[in-house]
Amino acid sequence: MIVPMARLRVLGPKDRFQAALGAVQDLGQMQLTQVPGREGIAAARLDARGEVRRRQLTRVLTDVDECVRTLAAGRARPASFEMHGAATPQQLARWTRLAAKTRREVKQLEARETALDEERALLKRYREFLVAVLPDVRRVSGVPQLTSHAVVVPAASRGVLDGLGAALRAQLGDEFSMAVHELPGGDAAIFLVLPARFSAQLEAQLHAARVPEIPLPEGYRDLPLEDAIPKMLLRIGEIPQELTACADQRATMWRARGEELLHARAAIQDWLDAATARERTAITSHAFAIEGWLPARSVPSFQQKLAAAAGPTLVVETIAREAWGKEDVPVVLANPRLFRPFEFLIALLPLPKYGSIDPTPFVAVFFPLIFGMMLGDVGYGALLAGLALLLHHRAKAGSALRTACEIALPCALFTVIFGVLYGECFGDLPQRLFGLHPLVLNREKAVFAALAAAIGVGVVQVVLGLVLGAISAGRHAPKEALGRGLSAAMVLLVTAALLAAFKVLPAKLFTPSVIALLCAFPVLIFAEGVIAPVELLATLGNVLSYARIMALGTASVMLAIVANQMVGAVGSTVVGLLFALLFHLVNFAIGLFSPAIHTLRLHYVEFFGKFYQPGGRRFEPFAHRGAASSKASSADSSARSSP
Amino acid sequence: MISMWVALGAAAVLAISALATAWAQSKIGTAGAAALAEKPELAGTIVILVAIPETMVILGFIVAVLLILRGGGGG
Q1: Is 60 exceeded by the pLDDT of residue A358?
Q2: Does this complex have an ipTM over 0.85?
Q3: How far is A235 from chain B (nearest CA, A)?
Q4: Do A190 and A276 share a domain, yes or no?
Q5: Which of A187, A313, A513, A525 is most buried by a 10 A CB count?
């Protein structure tokens, strides 16, 4: 459900403004909203000095964020990190210095790592070539009449190679040797040996063909090739150690400064949040006003805590419902423990508007049900439950993975239940091994019954959606509510007429259903306009869309049966068994992904389309960013560094 | 015994609807991936958009099954 909210106004003498704002932040229950401007009332903006500090702290925060991002990558958060109230000016000054120093060191470290990475990549690229040409280089170095050149021809200019060879042959005859070595990426490294007197001509040829010399790393460029190559080969082994040393330095910095950086980040964000919050308040020459939203049920406790924290001179009043519109109210969803994980699926869409219907309870019931109907297999259900329990045990509390596991568990339960009803455990194994038969439905053979069951679920969910839409619209648009209600009735009438036509229901129901439909039609056009027939057809299309439950279910069971048939189909039983297991594994993976996506789609498109009103704003209370900060007492508010 | 024409018809229904779905999903998926890179909060909407064309192949599958069952393939 969507929690009812209240809008509160906190009033007090001007000299208690800072204490009151600090207490509101410490309590962390209220989302501040702009106090309406009136004559003589101004927003409590920062003075010129405060603005300078805001700009300075924004820059410091950028530095701290960068340091934390770089140093904390893949490392655990310091265990002792905890906020202890607001920062003092001395702390802020120290953090400014710390952030600048750490950022500088981190940048130097990053530059060093980048240089090492580039050097390693370059050396690795030419390693094979260098090893191959080293003997020739040594031989040439002992003969002063000869000279050698190592050049690289890019992949895009490979045509140059033939031209270069032909041009050199034309100029030098056979007095040169050219060894070509393929490099990763298509480039070619060339080692040329020729008489020293032709060196100038070769360089002219290379220049004309735009073929560059092999770019040796810095530090080797001035060395003769016969000295540089052994050093470079040695260097390849040294670089990983230097990179490890850089990583160790990073880890040491994080251990030494991580806690303080996190503390600094939280405190600076707090300061900036408080500065932004000030602008939403109003202040006169004698008094101040703060307005904001909080859950209605929290109002009494908030009033008590605020009075205790900021003194009895404050007045907290609830603003009358008539004075605010639903559009401004932030949305808080509150559901029973069992349903709460399914709020995650609602969060993938924009939040519902305040005052509309929270679909979480319906999703919590229908999502596992439809998922179970699709997968419907005791074996796969048990596997899913085991996997979900294992991951749930390993996932951090509050993480997306843990929430996904909490959604997967009821899905697994319904998969097992439907597996029992369908008589399926890894496909048709119960029938093959023990001669057991399905309790309710054989999905392999009774395709029409499965289709009817799927459409039946569609009728129930779409009609429920229309009824919810009628209830939701009934509060402000009676005509729209009438249209939705009538659409729901007409879907039921169409279903009854079809069932009567196919003799599932008594045939005598057919005529009354059709007459009722014909009577309802003009009323529907009156309620929803000329578009009503199209809307009704679209609604019937939505119902038919639930046929995917049967389609995916049939595909899943057929794949499982094919997997089981592999045991006998391949010559060796062991090989057949392995193939069957592999196929079941693939089917299980498909069976997790596909039903989940399609169940979501059925909810988002077919079900939510009938009543869901997106556009709600998330409730974001004005609070401290760090852990355990809400416990910080506001008693020290006079000593705090206030914006 | 399923007649050859019924089997061919069922195969054609499934193949054409699968190709249509694949084409639509390729277009939507490409655009969706690009949008997701810039706005990760659109994940829910993009999942829906990508899943929408699958209705075609699912209905194609159902029609194919009906063709085979009604065309003498079984009951």
Answers
A1: yes
A2: no
A3: 39
A4: no
A5: A513
